[in-house]
Design brief:
The structure holds two protein chains of two kinds. Chain A is built from no helices and eleven strands. Chain A is mainly β. In chain A, the strands form two sheets. In chain A, strands 2, 4, 5, 6, 9, 10 and 11 form a seven-stranded mixed beta sheet that branches. Chain B contains no helices and eleven strands. In chain B, strands 2, 4, 5, 9, 10 and 11 form a six-stranded mixed beta sheet that branches. The chains are: A mainly beta, B mainly beta.
Chain lengths: ~110, ~110
């Protein structure tokens, strides 16, 4: 069974640009979660999508947005990139009331 | 919302010794507590979890204990091996919330 896949693995953008990160969940998983992991820090909850709807949002500005497609894959968009947005962005998927399975992440570097 | 605190932030043990990582949570309604292991360059991997209706769960060298009254839970690794070296995260989830709140992580180093 394929795990959670994220693309790209690395992304370098200039301050002010937009970044788009993609996630494909495990087959059959309907929920997708996005977390930000800045260097040396913990996992900060960004967004939760389930059945195509945004269900919950962490304490991040509106320039962090996303969506979930009918096949349950998801996209995270970060607009007007700032230097402090540099981090590892992790996607996870799950079935309701079960633990998450994480992907390997996208390393976003803003220069 | 939920607040999860994790200690220690770094832990070094000799191979074969035991390691204990502790977490506390703030929301008494939380009822699901997973532990994740993150190796360098990889995403976190679920290693063990416990629900609030049990006090302890074991899986080979790994065990988790939960004290609902005190709102804390711990990860115990016995007979540590160098491959146990990683960053470990605890997390808590409230029923219906469906998103995990993570601790700040513990970097475990097992010295051969």
């Amino acid at each position: 069974e394929a795990g959670v896949t994220q693309s790209p693995t690395h992304l370098i953008k200039t301050r002010g640009q937009q970044a788009t990160l993609r996630c494909s969940p495990i087959s059959g998983h309907t929920s997708v979660y996005w977390y930000q992991q800045a260097l040396g820090l913990g996992l900060q909850f960004l967004l939760w999508y389930d059945e195509g709807e945004e269900r919950n949002r962490g304490n991040f500005p509106p320039r962090f947005s996303g969506r979930q497609f009918p096949n349950y894959s998801s996209e995270l968009n970060v607009n007007a990139l700032e230097l402090e947005d540099s981090a590892l962005y992790l996607c996870a998927s799950s079935l309701p009331r079960y633990g998450y399975t994480f992907g390997s992440g996208t390393r976003l570097t803003v220069v | 919302g939920e607040n999860v605190e994790q200690h220690p932030s770094t832990l070094s043990v000799q191979e074969g010794d035991s390691a204990v990582i502790k977490c506390t949570y703030s929301d008494s309604a939380s009822n699901y507590f997973p532990w994740y292991k993150q190796e360098l360059g990889k995403g976190p991997q679920l290693i063990i979890d416990i629900r609030s209706n049990v006090g302890e769960k074991k899986d080979q060298r790994i065990a988790v204990t939960l004290n609902k009254t005190a709102k804390h839970f711990s990860l115990h690794i016995t007979e540590t091996q160098p491959e146990d070296s990683a960053v470990y995260f605890c997390a808590a989830e409230r029923p219906g919330a469906n998103n995990l709140f993570f601790g700040t992580g513990t970097r475990l180093t097992v010295i051969p």
